[in-house]
């Protein structure tokens, strides 16, 4: 364990003497952190501002008559559901 600390402290001393290497090390630590932060911030709530986006829905479904004589049109029921959600 002593050898590990010697190597670590020796590397830190060399790093302090080389400012360019220190800048590179700091950049290697900060840039991925900033990338992750911006990514998380951008994807935190993607549906927050989608209320004003216009959407067009077309239903070309035809009616279907069941054996008991009732008529079913799933396209119309989906459109009614979408209209009620606005």
Automatic annotation (TrEMBL):
The lineage of its organism: unclassified sequences, metagenomes, organismal metagenomes. It is found in: Membrane. The chain crosses the membrane at residues 20-38. This is Phage infection protein. It is a multi-pass membrane protein. GO terms for cellular component: membrane. Signal peptide: none annotated. Keywords: Membrane, Transmembrane, Transmembrane helix.
